[in-house]
Amino acid sequence: MMTFHKKVFPAIWFGFLGLFLVVGTLTEATTESPLFLIVPLMMGFFGFILMKNLLWNLVDEVWDCGDYLLIRNGDDEESIQLSNIMNISVSTATNPPRITLRLTYPSRFGNEIAFSPLMKFTLNPFAKNPVAEDLIARVDRAQSGRLALVTKEP
Q1: How far is CA 15 from CA 27, 28, 36, 99, 115, in A?
Q2: Which domain holds residue 49?
Q3: Do 50 and 92 share a domain, yes or no?
């Protein structure tokens, strides 16, 4: 679904707006009412801003490999240790749902990595994301181990 969200949906969105502009221009509707020009341009602008902040910053794949996550975005790939994750934020009120990892040490993808987890269908809008809940618990255990090593005195 990530290909659909990042590529197909924006193509449909901007294609529809472009078609609307072309038809409005060819039928000279834009000369009768400037709204035929202004509304699609505003929708394109706001659509671009929303997609830039909610879709295009999602990585393509995140694989759980036990004590680290394998992150893939295009041809780039990197392993992120669970102990390197500082914070996990979960947003279920967006479509697609997203998990954002804030890292202690930056990766090639930056200080934050956002991805959309696989989710089972539910009618409950307040349902917790089981992937995020499991990841939060495992990151906490990994950080506790790291803190124990740092605070351990000889």
Answers
A1: 18, 20, 16, 29, 26
A2: 2-54
A3: no
